[in-house]
Design goal:
Elements: H1 2-13, E1 23-28, E2 31-35, E3 48-52, H2 65-74, E4 79-82, H3 86-94, E5 99-100, H4 105-110, E6 114-117, H5 123-136, E7 139-142, E8 146-151, H6 154-181
Parallel strand pairs: 6-7
Antiparallel strand pairs: 1-2, 1-4, 2-3, 4-8, 5-6, 7-8
């Protein structure tokens, strides 16, 4: 639990999500511990809900619970983070392809590519698409919505969110600089 509380605070402090946006979860055996619907990630004390992966969660669980659950069912993830990182969201709205290729060396080493997933109102359909992307990748971005990442720990999933945002920030700056030279 302390790990979830700590990295929820870091998500907000590093501007990887804002206010009541984003969610965080951890799988412990056959249980999922997830942030409460609308909770602030930097104020998660008393705002975590636990449920068995094969049971219907409390209605107060994050609205993204179907996505987290599907990721846990289809991948080796032990933690899932979702943020609303501004550069990741912005680039997801303007990029035409199915992925973003990191330009900087460190991001490219960790993430060969960052899949872009089309947003859907149907959470179950979106869950399948995000989980499919995370079977082959450590993170992806839902267009206009933000990154989803997985990790063996909450720290690892957090690191991937931070790297996705860094890669998107660098690409944004490079694109602006190139446009200014044309």
């Amino acid at each position: 639990m302390e790990e979830i509380l700590s990295f929820g605070k870091k998500m907000v402090a590093q501007k990887l999500t804002y206010a009541g946006m984003g969610n965080i979860s951890k799988r412990v055996g056959k249980e999922i511990i997830i942030s409460r619907r609308g909770s602030m990630l930097d104020e998660l004390e008393g705002n975590l809900i636990a449920f068995r992966i094969d049971e219907q969660p409390d209605k107060e669980a994050s609205s993204d619970t179907p996505i987290h659950r599907e990721i846990y069912k289809k991948t080796d993830a032990k933690s899932v983070l979702h943020g609303h990182a501004p550069y990741a969201v912005a680039l997801s709205l303007i990029e035409k392809g199915n992925s973003i290729k990191p330009l900087d060396f460190e991001s490219a080493v960790v993430l060969n590519e960052i899949p872009l997933i089309d947003s859907k109102e149907d959470k179950e359909a979106l869950a399948k698409d995000v989980a499919a992307a995370l079977t082959k990748n450590r993170g992806c971005i839902v267009r206009g919505h933000g990154p989803y990442t997985k990790g063996k720990t909450v720290e690892e999933a957090f690191t991937i969110v931070a790297i996705i945002e860094h890669a998107c920030h660098v690409k944004y700056l490079v694109d602006i600089m190139k446009a200014g030279k044309e």
